[in-house]
Design a protein that fits this description.
With 118 residues, the chain is an alpha+beta fold. Helices cover 45% and strands 31% of the residues.
């Protein structure tokens, strides 16, 4: 049984995008937007396309997260249709993830020489 249950998958020809709405089972309170984008990209084979997380909403009393995503072929078109704040939010999340990854790497490198000196 898959963790991702697709509730709506519609091609919007007027705005030249694909709109996907789905439920992530068992991930309530632990799912980040960038992780959700990676999961959607892998499930629908969307490599090379722009996937924008629009909304992630936890359901009350259930361990389910409902998510809405827009999939664009071209980043320029996405920037024309969506507000700049959406892209600023995504860049901020990517920056925070990169800083967290960098913070973990030096800690691992610092521990390695201590082990060698013993």
């Amino acid at each position: 049984m898959s963790m991702i249950e697709v509730t709506r998958d519609v091609k919007n020809p007027l705005l030249s995008r694909r709109e996907i709405t789905c439920n992530f089972k068992g991930l309530s309170g632990r799912l980040k937007k960038l992780e959700a984008v990676d999961m959607i990209s892998k499930k629908f084979n969307l490599e090379g396309k722009i996937v924008i997380p629009i909304l992630l909403k936890n359901e009350t009393g259930r361990p389910v997260v409902s998510g809405s995503f827009y999939v664009y072929e071209d980043e320029k078109l996405a920037k024309e249709h969506l507000k700049a704040a959406v892209f600023a939010r995504i860049e901020k999340a990517k920056g925070a993830a990169a800083v967290k990854a960098e913070g973990e790497a030096p800690a691992e490198q610092a521990e390695a020489p201590k082990e060698e000196s013993k």
